[in-house]
Design a protein that fits this description.
Length: 110
């Protein structure tokens, strides 16, 4: 039995279930996906049609990479940013209360 994985991104090399068979994603171009079946037959399918297919599943693919949340606070007003930093300090204190291994405020965790 195949256990489908959830993937937020479809990439070349992913293995998908579609139209009663397993296919490898060979290429992506705009809204089209080029697939190659196990028997070597190529097909081009609109990505919306592919993903709307009731049997569609990503069987094997790379996990979505983690992205550093860099710059998320840059566009906030100064007042909102100050309040956010106060809440950050308050939650850090609470976290340290429940988990002493985190150390005391201002010191590196153990």
């Amino acid at each position: 039995m195949v256990t489908p994985t959830r993937s937020a991104v479809l990439r070349p090399g992913d293995l998908v279930r579609y139209d009663g068979a397993d296919h490898q994603v060979v290429a992506l171009a705009g809204t089209s996906v080029r697939l190659r079946s196990d028997d070597g037959a190529d097909s081009v399918v609109l990505v919306a049609y592919l993903m709307a297919s009731p049997e569609f599943a990503v069987i094997d693919g790379a996990p979505t990479p983690w992205v550093e949340p860099f710059g998320l606070l840059d566009g906030l007003p100064v007042k909102v940013l100050e309040e956010a930093r106060e809440w950050e300090q308050a939650t850090a204190i609470v976290a340290r209360f429940f988990n002493p291994a985190l150390g005391t405020p201002g010191e590196e965790p153990a």
